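Researcher: Sequence of DUF1877 family protein follows. Predict its structure.
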Amino acid sequence: MSFYFHLRAVAVNQVKEDAGWLTRLFDFAWDGLVDEADTHAMVSLERDFLDVHHFYTGARHYPDTGEPKTLPVLGGRVVRGAEPDVPPFVILDPPLVVQASAFLDDVRFDDLWSAAAEQLVPPHGAGFTSVLRKTFDRHHDALRGFYAKAADEGDSVVKWLLL
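Model: Prediction complete. C-alpha cells:
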C-alpha cells in the first residue's frame, strides 16, 4: 500500500476548519500534482514522512513541541473528522509558516544529515546511504521551496496523510 503525506499552501482567508472542506481540498487529479509541485503550491512526501520529521527534529518520537524544527512536517493545529480511522488534517497558520520557512532556510542539510544518518540508515542498510542522502536532500529542497513561497504569499499550510 502506498501512502502520501501532502502539504498544500492555501490562502489564509480560504481555510476552513471543516473536515468535509479539507477533504475536498485534497480531492485532486494526480495529473495536476506535477504542475502544483513545480510552482511550489504543494509538496508530497511518499512513505518516509516520519523519517523526514525525524531528520529535522533528531528524534524518533513525534510530538509537536512548537519549536520551529517540528513545524515543517508534523507541526500545526490538528483538525479531526468524524471518522476515527481517517488521519486528521494539520493546519499551520501564516506566522508558523514563516517560522518553518526561516528554520528550513537557516539550517544546513549537511548538519541535519550528520545528526540523523546514524538512526536513519540502518533500517535500509549501509549500501543505501547514498540513495537515502539524495532522497532526504530532495525532500529538504522541496520543503524549503514550498515553505518559502507559502511564507512570501502569507499562506497557511494544510497537511494530510492520504492512504
